[in-house]
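In this supplementary section we document a worked example of the pipeline. Step one takes a protein sequence of length 123 as its only input; no multiple sequence alignment statistics are reported here. Step two produces a three-dimensional model, which step three serialises into structure tokens for compact storage. The input and output of this example are shown verbatim.
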Amino acid sequence: MKTIAEKIRLYRLEQGLSQENMADSLGISTTAYGDIERGKTDLTLSRFYQIAEVLNISVAVLMGQTTPLQQELQQLEVEKLQIENDKLRLENQYLREKIAGRMIIDLIQKDAPTTSERQRIGF
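The serialised model returned by step three reads:
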């Protein structure tokens, strides 16, 4: 789970904003803003709202709260990844069995008598 400071940084980067841009928009120094992103500063509620406004996102999103639709989308993504994982596991199992089968055939053919040996023993 990402901290609020990490989320602020990620949303800032998604928006293509620099720390200097954010600091200017908030009316604080770049050092003070950097401390926010590093989690070295306790945010006031008003500063938190300012950051959300500058990033053009809701406070709820910044806090990690999701809407029912977002939760459903996340659940669908989890289910999709589980299906993909199952598919890869089955493909892996199939390839292992195919390789094992090929190895058995190779061993049988290796131990099988050659044409000259078959002629010698009357086959």
